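Onboarding guide, step 5: your first structure request.
Type a short instruction followed by the sequence, for example:

Predict the 3D structure of this protein.
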Amino acid sequence: MPVTKVRNELVDELLDLLQLERLELDLFRGQSRDIGTKYVFGGQVLGQALSAAQQTVDPARHVHSCHAYFLRAGDVDHPIIYDVDRSRDGGSFSVRRVVAIQHGKPIFNFACSFQGPEPGVEHQLSMPEVPQPEDLEPSPVPPAEIFDRLPPKLQRWLSGTGPFEFRPVYPRNELNPAKRPPFQQVWFRLVATIDESPVMHRALLAYASDFHLIGTTTLPHGISYLQPNVQMASLDHAMWFHRSFRIDDWLLYACDSPSASGGRGLARGSIYDRTGRLIASTAQEGLIRVKPPKEASA
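The system replies with structure tokens like these:
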């Protein structure tokens, strides 16, 4: 099924968000979009930092890995400055370090490596056997009698009217979650076709990779980030790019969580295109605190 050209204004807004304004040779400024989260969405900072780093690298070299730490919550109402350090340009690889700064303080540290095309041995793990996206429904929206009583920010987050469409293989009621094993698979794609370079497709994938990943750690416990006594935040994020892809065609995000302990949960993700090619891998650790009900209400 071809990608329908709907809600193009949201896609255009996201593309503008990731292109950044160049202030100096290695200094960039990015704006934020309020998607309904309390603070700046972590995927936005990931995508913008990658975009800033890529603009300082030979265009023939593409990102193959990135590693990030979230230091402080981002303020959605103020711009973010991205300071790029050209750590090394070698014969085969280029390495960059990026610091995202807001209100005079670093909020995010990012390191990434770039490589030119090169032949080599190949293997990959197989894609899970799941229904095709055309056989699944989009992420469910809460019933109107519940949705209308939610805060406006939460309505934006749950409305599904963003630049990406998600179709979970096993949907979950985030307002009343049941316990289940720490595995989930979600098909996703950009809601409109784009005529952009592979560089932008990678930045968009970095943006989207922050959806659903850390939520996998909550599945065995029957808790949700929407519950007032649950505090969650991304602590770090790692990503490896393996093969070429298009972000405006369906991709499968297969996530699992091998461990949660000490107020933290670890999640891993494998991203496949619909032909079964493994295009990227991710890992993320997040803060997970469950407060007693009385403390949460206070």
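Each response can be followed by summary notes, for example: The CA atoms of residues 229 and 294 lie 9 Å apart.
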